[in-house]
Specification:
The protein has 261 residues and is α/β, with parallel strands linked by helices. 49% of the residues lie in helices and 13% in strands. Strands 1-2-3-4-5-6-7-8 form an eight-stranded parallel sheet, with helices on both faces. Helix 7 links the parallel strand 6 and strand 7. It is globular, with a radius of gyration of 17 Å.
């Protein structure tokens, strides 16, 4: 089992040590948030063979300098055969809700640069794009004929859900599936072969996870809930979700490369 989306560099060193020592899953896709984060995630991936690094720039923050984006793209160019994906990238849905005057044009330009990079290096792209922002992201993905797109912690209307399904885009489900009706409805609607499990750690959760440090092991509970909602055996769902993640991110290829090194 693989945690399809985690901010491993956001954990404090003691938390990270605890996380690694208690690990019951087989790996994690460690996404990045900015230039410094890319470098930290890369170092973590060198230290732990079960950490698969992705480079990107998270959109829910003030705009970066052009130089920072250039440097992240340069890192992608240098490491494109070794990183697992481009991400986390996307559009500032929550920031714009807090500040409706925010002009998202510059964020869209940054996202397009990362989409172009994903196309150039044939890498999956990990997207932070919900509700109306998912429509904009889909437009870009279709314009550049991107096939391997992962909408993490996705939320959207039925029309957008259908569009994602038609394009065979992946989504990933977080532990909030235990208590969020919107996510439960999405799980029932979305094909199992296009679903992965994630924690988005260290983001905290409620319900049965209240006051717990978010840990990759929580995807075990995510898989159980997916199975219950889809009325399928948990073992079958675990196999399918794990295989989805391995195939989408071509993890076997990355493992072979690591072993050869």
């Amino acid at each position: 089992m693989i945690d399809a989306h985690i901010h491993l560099d956001w954990y404090q060193p003691a938390e990270r040590e605890q996380l690694i020592n208690r690990l019951e899953v087989n790996g994690m896709i460690a996404v990045s948030n900015h230039l410094k984060s890319c470098k930290e995630v890369w170092q973590l991936a060198q230290q732990y063979p079960f950490v698969y690094p992705a480079f990107g720039w998270h959109p829910e923050q003030p705009l970066p300098s052009d130089q920072e984006i250039d440097q992240i793209l340069q890192l992608i160019e240098e490491k494109h055969q070794e990183i697992i994906a481009i991400g986390e990238v996307g559009l500032p849905y929550y920031t714009q809700r807090e500040d409706p005057s925010l002009d998202p044009t510059a964020y869209r330009i940054i996202l397009e640069r990362f989409v172009q990079s994903a196309k150039q290096y044939d890498l999956p792209i990990v997207l932070h794009a919900v509700y109306q922002d998912a429509v904009i992201a889909c437009d870009l993905l279709e314009d550049y004929q991107i096939q391997r797109a992962h909408f993490h912690w996705f939320k959207g209307d039925q029309q957008t859900i259908n569009r994602l399904i038609d394009n065979q885009y992946m989504i990933s489900i977080t532990p909030d599936c235990w208590y969020e009706k919107e996510i439960q409805a999405l799980i029932k609607r979305y094909p199992l072969e296009l679903i992965m499990a994630e924690t988005d750690g260290p983001w905290p959760f409620e319900g049965p996870f209240q006051d717990q440090m978010t840990h990759p092991n929580m995807i075990i509970e995510v898989i159980k809930k997916i199975a219950a909602l889809k009325q399928l055996p948990a073992e079958e769902v675990q196999r399918q979700v794990t295989n989805n993640t391995i195939e989408f991110y071509r993890i076997h290829e990355k493992n072979k490369q690591k072993w050869s090194e």
